[in-house]
């Protein structure tokens, strides 16, 4: 897969600028494991090649795992922890019930433990896997600064309170993103991750049935597309049926998501909301032309670097988990 050289040349500069923006980020480093686990990225990529070759549809879920981790307590792998007696963990929160890919993370972590015991954090593993998922789905690559530590706390309540909801409008989504030091451009760019993956019916069914007292269906959703979705999603209680978030190319990282949104065919209310703000609408319409794919790839790479630095634990903070689903 060809990656534009301009993207790769600009990203290290962006990374350095971001690294200077907070004390935590400054401690993340390209090549952090160069002496302790020099083959970390190669080991992750080799295993990810096998995972995505066997199940291409996992690219979206693995990217989503990283998103859902970083928006709650920062990128500390807290989303991977199992619930325990007396504590309901993030992964069991309602917005996370449909998360997948946990066993793939465990598989990659086991390979790293065999090569470099007690060295590479689950937070770094998940960050690298998300990047590789995008690359293997024919998307861009970017340098990943490493050195994150794993958190010891995981709360379902915090997940419910911090994750951007599928029904979010621009004011709500902007507030949530701003709380993670992410701006409006990051919001519209990272929404492009919806080019990968599928969604269960309950996450969008309220747009199809009894939307409001005035409308049965969400008027911001193209009526023909709404009819098509109803043939798959028979009721708001249908938990089994899946719909592609980017119909026709949900296993490929590309810009077709923006073309669907521009035609009022985004699956979620949060997708439709991108057309209600002048800045985000302009970006959607620009990328939807198909003439600026390189620009989107560069933007997405930069926003992923920013998100991957959110709330990173470093130094003596947290721990390096032996197994990602349980604290040491």
TrEMBL record:
Cystines in this chain: 37-116, 70-75, 122-324, 201-233
Main location: secreted
Signal peptide: 1-26
Pfam families xref list: peroxidase
Residue numbers annotated as active site: 68 (proton acceptor)
GO cellular component terms, semicolon-separated: extracellular region
Molecular functions (GO terms): heme binding; lactoperoxidase activity; metal ion binding
Binding of Ca(2+) 2, residues: 195, 246, 254
Amino-acid positions noted as binding Ca(2+) 1 in the UniProt annotation, renumbered to this chain: 69, 72, 74, 76, 78, 90
Cofactor details (free text): Binds 1 heme b (iron(II)-protoporphyrin IX) group per subunit. Binds 2 calcium ions per subunit.
Gene Ontology BP annotations: hydrogen peroxide catabolic process; response to oxidative stress
Taxonomic superkingdom: Eukaryota
Protein location: Secreted
Its biological purpose: Removal of H(2)O(2), oxidation of toxic reductants, biosynthesis and degradation of lignin, suberization, auxin catabolism, response to environmental stresses such as wounding, pathogen attack and oxidative stress. These functions might be dependent on each isozyme/isoform in each plant tissue.
Family: Belongs to the peroxidase family. Classical plant (class III) peroxidase subfamily. Belongs to the peroxidase family. Ascorbate peroxidase subfamily.
Protein name: Peroxidase
Lineage: Eukaryota, Viridiplantae, Streptophyta, Embryophyta, Tracheophyta
């Amino acid at each position: 897969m060809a990656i534009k050289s301009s993207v790769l040349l600009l990203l290290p500069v962006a990374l350095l600028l971001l690294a200077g923006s907070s004390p935590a980020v400054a401690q993340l480093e390209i090549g952090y494991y160069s002496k302790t686990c020099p083959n970390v990225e190669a080991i992750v990529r080799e295993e990810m090649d096998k995972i995505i070759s066997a199940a291409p549809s996992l690219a979206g879920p693995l990217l989503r795992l990283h998103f859902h981790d970083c928006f709650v307590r920062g990128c500390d792998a807290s989303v991977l922890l199992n619930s325990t007696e007396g504590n309901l963990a993030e992964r069991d929160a309602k917005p996370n019930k449909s998360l997948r890919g946990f066993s793939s993370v465990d598989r990659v972590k086991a390979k790293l433990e065999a090569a470099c015991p007690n060295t590479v954090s689950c937070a770094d593993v998940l960050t690298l896997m998300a990047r590789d998922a995008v690359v293997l789905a024919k998307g861009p690559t970017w340098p990943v600064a490493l050195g994150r530590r794993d958190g010891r706390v995981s709360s379902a309540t915090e997940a419910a309170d911090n994750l951007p909801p599928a029904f979010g409008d621009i004011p709500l989504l902007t507030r949530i993103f701003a709380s993670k030091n992410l701006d409006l451009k990051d919001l519209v760019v990272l929404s492009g991750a919806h080019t990968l993956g599928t969604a269960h019916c309950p996450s969008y069914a309220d747009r199809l049935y009894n939307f409001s007292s005035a409308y049965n269906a969400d008027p911001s959703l193209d009526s023909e597309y709404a009819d098509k979705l109803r043939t798959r999603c028979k009721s708001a209680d249908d938990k089994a049926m899946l719909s592609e978030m980017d119909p026709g190319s949900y296993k490929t990282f590309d810009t077709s998501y923006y073309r669907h949104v521009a035609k009022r065919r985004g699956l979620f209310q949060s997708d439709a909301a991108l057309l209600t703000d002048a800045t985000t609408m302009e970006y959607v319409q620009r990328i939807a032309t198909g003439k600026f794919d390189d620009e989107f790839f560069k933007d997405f790479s930069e926003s992923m670097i920013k998100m991957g630095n959110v709330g990173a634990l470093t130094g003596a903070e947290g721990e390096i988990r032996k197994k990602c689903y349980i604290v040491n």
